[in-house]
Amino acid sequence: MLRARARNKAPGVRFSNRFFFFILRLITTVSCPLFPPASLLFRLSSGTCSLHDQCTCCRNWQGNDCSQRTCPFGNAHVDSPKGDLDGSTGTLSGPTNPLVVGSTVYPFGTTEQYPDAFDQEGHFYMECSNKGLCNRDDGSCECFPGYEGSACQRASCPNDCSGHGTCETIKELAEDREDGDLAKGAYAMSGYASAHAGIGDLSGIGDITYELWDKTLTMGCKCDPGFMGPDCSMKICRYGVDPLFIPSNYLYSADGVIEYDWDAPHFEKAYVEIIGEAGMKGQFDLTIYDVYGEKYVLDALNYASYESGNYTSCADIMKHFPNDKIKDTVVGTFHHQMAHKGGLVSSAYVGGATKPFCTAMMVNTTEGISQSVNIDTPLQKNALGGLELADQTGIRYEFDYNRGNPGYIKDLFIDNVTPEPTQAGAAGGDNNDGIVYAYYGITKQGEVAEYSDTNKNFDASTNRFMYAEENYFQSGKHDVLNDYQVTLPGFIISAKNGSKDVVLSRDNHFYLEGADCRVAGICKQYKTAKILLFGREYTINRTQEEWLQVEYPHPSDYVVGPESEVYNKRAHVFRPVTNMTLTEELHFPHEGVGMVDYNNISYWWSNSASTAILKAYPERVPVKAKLVQVYQYVSECSGRGTCDRDTGLCSCFTGYSHDNCDTQTPVC
């Protein structure tokens, strides 16, 4: 009977008596518990039996029988106390009294309360980085939502950025920033932030170095242009100007508009100008941006004199911008824009004409080129040795974003201006090394909101805004520093302790004016003569634009001629900067809040990247202007509709139409 039952058993592994005696002896000599768990065969090497039948676990094993795994450790995202470790049920031991010293998990002990930390110390090593639970069976961390990695050490990107962005570390995100990228608010790197009205910080300082503890652990999505949200899943709708917006400098009477200041509102307007001698030709690279931050690099555009017609046309340039990301602007007649007393655009398309985004034209050579163009030279042009005034010719491109492309726009720039080696002027050229001077800049800064200096009153006798030191919008006790709500574009690139001269890296004449505007009666409500440097107020005596040379003549990357002569690229490239003269000496704070340990700020160009980056040494210091936001006139759907985040299309309110709801529609 027994023999028959044995035959009916399922096939299995057969062990000899010798093997069972071996296992029994191993259990009694190596493993502490008398009756080990069923998984003993897999855990025999996880510890040794010590005195008093206590197990000494191997590395990364724990438990009374060394059967539990220890999970990976990482810097804790959030430090926390561990609670009652010794089961005393009494007061938790303090941070200076470590417990369980010599344990396999904490060889040097740990604490029941928060760890003993010095000032500015934190993020101690914790199992699963304090952002997950340890699976003791296999030693793996089961991370909480939003965290990943073997030790849950990384804050993960949600939904892998939805296929509309890249997942990067916070260090990479900081380094990826270019000059002009805004840190927060509307039109920032992560897309439109509807929680912010307008833009407060225009400094747009790029190429930031981030070296804090989480530089490789905190992850975030860098959304593609046109997408937004923490996971880049939401689409951005078209921006537009509120059709009911009336700028504060538009003055109306029974006859319509009696004054219109062309400085405001601000739609981006930029230019590129290349000047040489007769027969000039060559190539240059143009980098241009749309309102969504999309970067377009137009390589090897041809330049030549306007008269020759051998330059890259505006029609060819416009082919680089898909889906009307940058487009021409259709505007209404002057009557429909102004005289009917509507808003800025109102019935904008009635009787409308088209204003092109790109226009090519002849250069104005009556002023020539500066003789010694540098940071100390005002923004003007005179004759230059090697390129006489009478021989000058060239090409000028103007890029007018206008109301068809409203909002904050990163400034365009050109580089790699390369005259052709075979270039010959009317008189044989200059050893076939044609010299050219290239300029780029903006004549208007694109904005999303109207700003105002709170220290000005309107003078009806002159139709101008004049300074009034005692005037504030707010009544009663007032903190003057709250009036400095706009951080200017760029940063200080030249300043000395005890000097009155300060040079900013960007063109800021749209926001700044000299205090002497009161004498001339030309003060602007949306400009200011007050700035904040190192936390202290200063008054601007005068301000002017100046040329800063950003590219110098240098040997080219290729050689020409039968003898392979090195070709010298004789190209000079300039951009405008702002020079301010203060009414009193600038003082660098050496103590207190905002303390610095240097007395000078100087500048240089870094050519480590394909695009030169304007550096400041030892620090890029932003400047605040005494301007407060009055009204945000540019927003998604012009503030007259709602944005469908799934489709990126505007749903206009009744009475408004167009793809961005910027046009009033008669309701009958």
Task: Classify the secondary structure makeup into a structural class.
Answer: mainly beta
Count the E strands.
Answer: 46
Helix content: under 10%
The radius of gyration over CA amounts to 35 Å
- Principal-axes geometry comes out as elongated
Which band does the percent of strand residues land in? 25-35%
- How would a crystallographer describe the biggest sheet? 13 strands, mixed
Give the integer mean of the pLDDT values.
76
Residue runs with pLDDT of under 50 for 5 or more positions: 1-31, 33-43, 185-197, 334-348, 366-385, 424-433, 470-477
Given the structure, what is the number of helices? Answer: 6
Spatial separation of the terminal alpha carbons: 103 Å
Notes on the protein architecture:
With 668 residues, the chain is mostly beta strands. It has 6 helices and 46 strands. Strands 18, 23, 24, 26, 30, 31, 32, 33, 34, 37, 38, 39 and 40 form a 13-stranded mixed beta sheet that branches. A 3-stranded antiparallel beta sheet has the order 20-19-25, with no helix packed on it. A two-stranded antiparallel ribbon has the order 1-2. A hairpin with a 5-residue loop joins β3 (61-62) and β4 (68-69). The chain is elongated, with a radius of gyration of 35 Å. The model is unreliable at 1-31, 33-43, 185-197, 334-348, 366-385, 424-433 and 470-477 (pLDDT under 50).
